[in-house]
């Protein structure tokens, strides 16, 4: 999982910056993420659901929110992850890369107004 994240991080991402400046490795980043119990669902989820998917007017940026549901199925432990993706073109062979990723544990989710 973390190796895939590193492999698909865009040159503009903070991960690539940390790789270039500090020599960050996938193992180090995984260890960092595992320091918080809130992030464990990143590695131990049962289901992933895309809650939102939008594109910029030029179709070169994508904005996605994925919700990871823990193995026990309780929404109290769900984690939302916001992704900003970018591509260099519109050919079928062009790859979407990850510009940024924001992990939002359930306790930090926005509350809906009623």
Structure, described:
By secondary structure, the chain is an alpha+beta fold. Helix content is 25%, strand content 31%. It has four helices and four strands. Strands 1-2-3-4 form a four-stranded antiparallel β-sheet, with no helix packed on it. A hairpin with a 5-residue loop joins strand 1 (47-55) and strand 2 (61-69). The protein is globular and about 40 Å long.
> What is the averaged pLDDT score?
86
Q: Strands across the major sheet, in which order?
A: 1-2-3-4
Determine the fraction of residues in helical runs and give it as a percent range: 10-25%
Main sheet characteristics: 4 strands, antiparallel
Number of helices: 4
**Class by alpha and beta content:** alpha+beta
Classify the beta-strand content into a percent band.
25-35%
Features:
114 residues, alpha+beta, 4-stranded antiparallel beta sheet, 4 helices, 31% strand
Care to give the gist of this entry?
By secondary structure, the chain is an alpha+beta fold. 25% of the residues lie in helices and 31% in strands.
Helix/strand layout:
Blueprint: H1 2-7, H2 14-22, H3 26-34, H4 41-44, E1 47-55, E2 61-69, E3 79-86, E4 97-105
Antiparallel strand pairs: 1-2, 2-3, 3-4
